[in-house]
């Protein structure tokens, strides 16, 4: 079919329709333009404040590739075993520190999740009638989650001394804030009919939470907790910068003191651990979410 | 005896229940009728204290229900079982646990949250299920049952509360005719066999006439009729529903003849 | 039908035949005592917990008993001291009001630190363990045995005790740290910025932090956008390419922003630019993964519609997939901007620009009033950005929640 066989509109009608369309979309286009302009201005402003120097970046990019090249070990195929042994000369100490990192993440996640579990029911608008209690619980959780964990760790190192103790506490507090918010959102989205059914039988707050709320939120809680554990492993790996335990201390030292191959050795260990934990928690999460067995 | 005096509940400026006064003697089967939005549900929820009244008083024996709080309020709710239009079971718990939830007020929190029910409680729950032919479903998840089955589980839960009064908020509104009859018969049996007062919201005038000793008609939050079923003239029904009385009679709902009902409990 | 006495319990002896019910449902009424599997699991769980206490955490029954006795003595002593102080306060109350106030405060302080706090701690630990058990038990299908619950609980708690023991937790250390924290908290009030010169410095650093977060998020998202397609099954059907792209994302994500900051400092020197690059590096991986997931979950029907009109593969992506994923991506970018504002506050600790430098400096020099001022600044900024990004998300997408 040739295009000119399509029926043509009367030009005056066409003009009117076109004007109408343009008029209708003009406001949106204007908003888009203003938004785009604002974006460009903020980019320029931010670039100026953050001292972005593309020239320097490209001029020094060679040193980035050189750095990557430097930290990689020199391995020869014919002497690979001795090469690896040399590369991972400190593997005993690093493995222990890696284990400590995992422990920090585990204890921090468990303790933080327990706190978040208890507070989330207080922060949920559909369970707690007292606005004062809800407000207090929410602000407290917000404080715990907004202050970065490493800041908590810095303060706790002064109070509790060096070592993993401040690291665990910092991660636990931050986890409590982050999970508490997610948990309370889950609680706010539940079906309220079972809750009402339970209240009507004379059940108290604890029983209502246990039997009407918990069965509905359980799987989501477990899934969020596993996700958080993965995040916390990464968080625990940097706690060492401020002296709060884990493998971060050695990595920092290696980077600062230019022990090049150590950097790659430790980084590789961290990356493998994080990726492995990522895969593990992902499988566990799918199983938890998939197997919603009767409770 | 349940005594309601000048009970009022406002949502914003609108009064859902407006200055209602009623006396409900122990052991009676009272039907509350009226079109949706007439305040029937709110009235029942006020009695169970799921909502708090704006004004007025509810008394039960020498208990001032409107003044209760804390443990005393929970004890009142246990005495005043409620069943809902949407059953309000916990879908992800099994049937037996759902029924056992009716005993929560009678066991300590520390053990009940661990689901450590005594053999007595389990026997009671199973006996309640058994009496509604639901014993074989004890281990199924509540959400896997049909509406009629769920409502029977809900009645079993109400029964194990060993209540003095049973509130039923449109218990049959989401059920088919056969289950409607099963549920209404169950309520009648609870009333006649154990002398438990039943206060039941109903949409259908025919059902109300067939099952209830006494009807209370509500419109716009006020009581506009209070009497026996046969006192309810077409004129009153028209006022209640704001349309021809013939329209509100639901032809599909079976009206149970008295003889047949007696047989069902033999 | 005889007229019953009103009302009656449906489960009084008259109506309820317990024996008949138990006979009809024998499976519901196991013989008294534990099932063998449950008993074994309980034994293993308790054994594991005790072993981890004794072997790894080094808590012997004797030492534990001594510690409990010491704590009890301290509590009793604290009670006595508090009682004396309060009695003194009562005696002084008639005459010297300010002295009475002082005595009252010291009495209450003793009561809190030496009586209430240890008792609270002793109550919190068993309570938390109970909550943990209830939560683990909630996963059990009702009707099944508690063996698995007990085992999982035993493993979780044993690992917890091992962790606490290995990492050097002790009640004395926690107590000392807590009282230190109390002292710091008192010193933090009221928040104060020191001098006006410092205030200007702080405000500039805050601007730097915001600029780092903004640019880092934007650049990372822009770079990750095309690569997201490479990792999406429905956009690029080449298996090897997808695998390589995905593992690259994982690797980049696996290295923390702080580590990236350290690496980039070596390249472009100290300053906020290194911070921007650090955020770009780690978020590139995160965005790539999220974008590719968004692309993969996109509805296939619009793509088929475009292809059916004779459009190319590129057309299908542009008109079939892009309109679907753009809102999702925008929402994610806004969410990340907010969370990066928080990350950007910390990369200053290693010298990559922003407010973190001042924060860590003032903590090291124990200038607590400035610490609380800086934390307050961060809190307010994040709250403002949170509100703004929620509004923006709502305006652009018409929904409030992150996808």
From TrEMBL, chain A:
The lineage of its organism: Bacteria, Pseudomonadati, Pseudomonadota, Alphaproteobacteria, Hyphomicrobiales. It holds the Pfam family BPD_transp_1. Gene3D superfamilies: MetI-like (1.10.3720.10). GO terms for molecular function: ABC-type phosphonate transporter activity. It is a multi-pass membrane protein. This is Phosphonate ABC transporter permease. GO terms for cellular component: plasma membrane. Its main location: membrane. The keyword Transmembrane helix applies. Belongs to the binding-protein-dependent transport system permease family. Residues 98-281 form the ABC transmembrane type-1 domain. It is found in: Cell membrane. PANTHER family: ABC TRANSPORT SYSTEM PERMEASE PROTEIN P69, PHOSPHONATES TRANSPORT SYSTEM PERMEASE PROTEIN. InterPro entries: MetI-like, MetI-like_sf, PhnE/PtxC. Keywords: Cell membrane, Membrane, Transmembrane, Transmembrane helix, Transport. The chain crosses the membrane at residues 32-50, 103-129, 150-173, 258-277.
From TrEMBL, chain B:
It comes from the Bacteria. One of its GO terms (molecular function) is ATP binding. Keywords: ATP-binding, Cell membrane, Membrane, Nucleotide-binding, Translocase, Transport. SUPFAM superfamilies: P-loop containing nucleoside triphosphate hydrolases. CDD domains: ABC_PhnC_transporter (cd03256). SMART domains: AAA (SM00382). The keyword Ligase does not apply. Residues 2-245 form the ABC transporter domain. GO terms for cellular component: membrane. InterPro entries: AAA+_ATPase, ABC_transporter-like_ATP-bd, ABC_transporter-like_CS, ABC_transpr_PhnC, MetN_ABC_transporter-like, P-loop_NTPase. Belongs to the ABC transporter superfamily. This is Phosphonate ABC transporter ATP-binding protein. The lineage of its organism: Bacteria, Pseudomonadati, Pseudomonadota, Alphaproteobacteria, Hyphomicrobiales.
């Amino acid at each position: 079919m040739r295009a000119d066989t399509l029926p043509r509109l009367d030009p005056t009608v066409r003009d009117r329709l076109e004007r109408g369309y343009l008029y209708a979309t003009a406001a949106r286009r204007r908003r888009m333009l203003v938004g785009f302009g604002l974006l460009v201005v903020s980019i320029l402003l931010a670039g100026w404040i953050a001292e972005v120097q593309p020239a320097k970046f490209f001029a020094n990019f060679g040193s980035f590739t050189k750095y990557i090249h430097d930290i990689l070990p020199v391995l020869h195929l014919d002497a690979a075993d001795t090469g690896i042994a040399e590369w991972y000369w400190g593997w005993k100490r690093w493995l222990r520190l890696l284990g400590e990192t995992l422990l920090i993440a585990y204890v921090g996640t468990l303790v933080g999740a327990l706190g978040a579990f208890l507070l989330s029911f207080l922060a949920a608008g559909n369970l707690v009638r007292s606005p004062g209690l809800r407000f207090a619980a929410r602000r407290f959780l917000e404080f715990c989650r907004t202050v970065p964990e490493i800041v908590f760790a810095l303060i706790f190192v002064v109070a509790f001394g060096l070592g993993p103790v401040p690291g665990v506490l910092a991660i636990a507090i931050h986890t409590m804030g982050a999970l508490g918010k997610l948990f309370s959102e889950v609680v706010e989205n539940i079906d309220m009919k079972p809750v009402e059914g339970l209240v009507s039988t004379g059940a108290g707050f604890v029983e209502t939470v246990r039997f009407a709320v918990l069965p509905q939120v359980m799987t989501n809680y477990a899934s969020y907790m596993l996700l958080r554990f993965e995040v916390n492993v990464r968080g625990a790996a940097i706690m060492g910068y401020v002296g709060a335990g884990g493998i971060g201390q050695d990595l920092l030292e290696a980077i600062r003191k230019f022990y090049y191959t150590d950097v790659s050795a430790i980084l590789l260990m961290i990356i493998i651990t994080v990726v492995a934990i990522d895969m593990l928690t992902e499988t566990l999460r799918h199983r938890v979410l998939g197997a919603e067995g009767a409770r | 005896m349940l005594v309601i005096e000048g009970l009022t509940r406002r949502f914003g400026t609108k009064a859902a229940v407006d200055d209602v006064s009623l006396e409900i003697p122990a052991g009676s089967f009272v039907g509350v009728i009226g079109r949706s939005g007439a305040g029937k549900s709110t009235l029942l929820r006020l009695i169970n204290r799921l909502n708090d009244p704006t004004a007025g008083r509810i008394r039960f024996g020498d208990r001032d229900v409107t003044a209760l709080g804390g443990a005393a309020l929970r004890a009142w709710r246990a005495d005043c079982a409620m069943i809902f239009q949407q059953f309000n079971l916990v879908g992800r718990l099994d049937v037996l646990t759902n029924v056992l939830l009716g005993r929560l007020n009678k066991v300590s929190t520390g053990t009940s949250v661990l689901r450590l029910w005594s053999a007595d409680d389990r026997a009671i729950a199973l006996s309640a299920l058994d009496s509604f032919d639901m014993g074989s479903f004890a281990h199924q998840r509540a959400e896997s049952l049909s509406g009629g089955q769920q409502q029977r589980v809900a009645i079993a839960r109400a029964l194990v509360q060993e209540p003095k009064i049973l509130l039923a908020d449109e218990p049959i509104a989401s059920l088919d005719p056969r289950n409607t009859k099963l549920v209404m018969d169950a309520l009648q049996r609870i009333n006649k066999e154990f002398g438990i007062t039943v206060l039941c919201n109903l949409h259908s005038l025919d059902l109300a006439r067939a099952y209830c000793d006494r009807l209370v008609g509500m419109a716009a939050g006020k009581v506009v009729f209070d009497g026996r079923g046969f006192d309810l003239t077409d004129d009153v029904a028209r006022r209640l529903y704001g349309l021809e009385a013939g329209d509100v009679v639901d032809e599909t709902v079976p009206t149970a003849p008295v003889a047949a009902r007696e047989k069902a409990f033999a | 039908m005889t007229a019953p006495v009103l009302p009656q319990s449906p489960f009084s002896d008259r109506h309820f035949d317990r024996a008949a019910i138990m006979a009809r449902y024998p499976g519901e009424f196991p013989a008294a005592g534990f099932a063998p599997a449950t008993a074994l699991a309980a034994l293993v769980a308790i054994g594991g917990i005790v072993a981890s206490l004794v072997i790894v955490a080094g808590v012997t029954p004797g030492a534990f008993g001594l510690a409990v006795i010491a704590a009890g003595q301290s509590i009793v002593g604290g009670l006595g001291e508090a009682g004396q102080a309060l009695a003194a306060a009562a005696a002084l109350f008639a005459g010297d009001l300010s002295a009475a106030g002082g005595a009252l405060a010291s009495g209450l302080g003793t009561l809190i630190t030496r009586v209430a706090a240890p008792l609270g701690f002793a109550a919190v630990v068993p309570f938390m363990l109970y909550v943990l058990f209830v939560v683990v038990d909630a996963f059990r299908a009702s009707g099944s045995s508690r063996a698995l619950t007990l085992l999982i609980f035993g493993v979780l708690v044993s690992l917890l005790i091992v962790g606490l023991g290995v990492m050097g937790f002790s009640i004395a250390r926690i107590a000392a740290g807590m009282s230190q924290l109390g002292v710091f908290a008192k010193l933090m009030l009221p928040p104060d910025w020191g001098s006006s010169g410092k205030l200007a410095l702080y405000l500039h650093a805050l601007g730097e932090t915001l600029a780092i977060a903004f640019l880092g998020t934007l650049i990372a998202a822009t770079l990750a956008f095309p690569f997201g397609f490479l990792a999406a099954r429905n956009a690029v059907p080449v298996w090897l390419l997808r695998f390589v792209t995905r593992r690259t994302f994982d690797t980049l994500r696996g290295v923390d922003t702080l580590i990236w900051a350290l690496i980039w400092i070596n390249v472009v020197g100290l300053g906020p630019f290194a911070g921007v690059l650090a955020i770009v590096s780690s978020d590139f991986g995160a965005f790539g993964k999220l974008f590719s997931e968004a692309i993969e979950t996109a509805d296939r029907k619009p793509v088929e519609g475009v292809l059916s009109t004779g459009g190319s593969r590129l057309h299908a992506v542009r008109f079939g997939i892009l309109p679907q994923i753009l809102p999702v991506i925008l929402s994610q970018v806004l969410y990340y901007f907010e969370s990066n504002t928080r990350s950007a506050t910390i990369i200053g600790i290693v010298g990559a620009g922003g407010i973190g430098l001042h924060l860590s400096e003032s903590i090291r020099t124990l200038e607590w009033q400035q610490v609380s001022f800086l934390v307050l600044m961060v809190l307010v900024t994040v709250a403002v950005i949170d509100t703004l990004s929620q509004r923006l998300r709502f305006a652009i997408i018409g929904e409030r929640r992150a996808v």
